[in-house]
Specification:
Largest sheet: 5 strands, mixed
Strand content: 5-15%
Order of helices and strands: EHEHEHEEHEEHHEEHHHEEHEH
Number of strands: 12
Strand order of the largest sheet: 3-2-1-4-9
Number of helices: 11
Distance between the termini: 21 Å
């Protein structure tokens, strides 16, 4: 059982190194990394550090990624395409550069061996009460993005949103929408299906161009409207604390160590910030190596 890891890296190059080194402990694993185009120079020394390692691939197709933007979808899709082109691993996990492995590599590999044939991705049919407007505004309304001026983006989108609500405007959707966490754990067969679907239905990708946080809809809506639906388990296999704060999600610290390593059916956690607490990463690395 070979595992692949798809990483969206935005900041903290040194922390990315920690994550790469942890994932390389997984036998025969391969790592594909998208570096936010805005920060390529910041990551250049890391790219050089791993350029001779065949198991670490910094993909060439990169985008400037902003929170909730269309480019977030394009960056994820670029990683998926790289994985499918390689076609050398059985399962792939989408991670951020601020995630970390919290279980021993053998446990992770054994889990996918035992559950081969299943796909792991949080999903729910839209509209759903846990999202504002049931989530239908994410694609149903037009959203503009002025990356260098987020305050302007918010003001303009608020005005456009009020106008669209007032005139009861909704963009047409020709598919049943599903939402969920964008951090997936999918087989090579599922990723291949995604790439083929996007290639065969270019209008689908175009639908997401003026969307907001629709990376949490893009993959779900493809797979949940396909033959993979019956194979998908609604879990992302990740530990994330949205309840206690002070950040949301909470930045995990040394005090969370025991809870992390004993969390059932959780193999990764997010998120970590070594500038706030690096000891937790040291302890997790020592644990997974033991």
């Amino acid at each position: 059982m070979k595992l692949g890891f798809l990483i969206l890296a935005h900041r903290y190059p040194a922390q990315l190194v920690r994550l790469i080194e942890a994932l390389l402990l997984v036998d025969e694993s391969k790592i594909y990394i998208h570096v936010d185009q805005k920060n390529t120079a910041e990551f250049q020394s890391i790219i050089n550090q791993f350029k001779s390692n065949a198991r670490v691939v910094f993909i060439e197709e990169t985008y400037k990624v902003y929170w909730g933007s269309y480019n977030q979808i394009l960056a994820t899709l670029a990683l998926i395409k790289a994985a499918v082109k390689s076609n050398s691993e059985h399962y792939f996990m989408l991670l951020s550069g601020q995630d970390f492995l919290i279980k021993k590599p053998s446990e992770l590999v054994n889990f996918f061996k035992i559950n081969q044939g299943s796909e792991y991705m949080v999903h729910f049919k839209l509209p759903d009460v846990q999202w504002q407007d049931g989530g239908l505004n994410r694609l149903g309304n037009y959203h503009l993005n002025f990356p260098k001026h987020p305050w302007l983006t918010n003001k303009i989108n608020a005005a456009i949103g009020k106008l669209q609500t007032a005139i009861k405007f909704k963009r047409r959707s020709y598919f049943q929408q599903y939402g969920g966490s964008n951090w997936f754990n999918l087989s090579i067969d599922a990723l291949t299906y995604i790439v083929n679907y996007v290639n065969q239905h270019p209008v689908y990708l175009k639908t997401f161009k003026y969307s907001l946080t629709a990376d949490e809809i893009f993959i779900q809506s493809i797979l949940m409207n396909s033959e993979f639906k019956s194979k998908i388990v609604p879990q992302d296999l990740r530990y994330t604390n949205w309840s206690t704060g002070p950040e949301y999600p909470k930045i995990l610290r040394e005090s969370d160590f025991e809870e992390l390593i004993h969390a059932p059916s959780k193999f990764f956690a997010r998120k970590f910030d070594a500038t706030k607490d690096s000891i937790i990463l040291d302890k997790l690395k020592a644990y997974i190596e033991s």
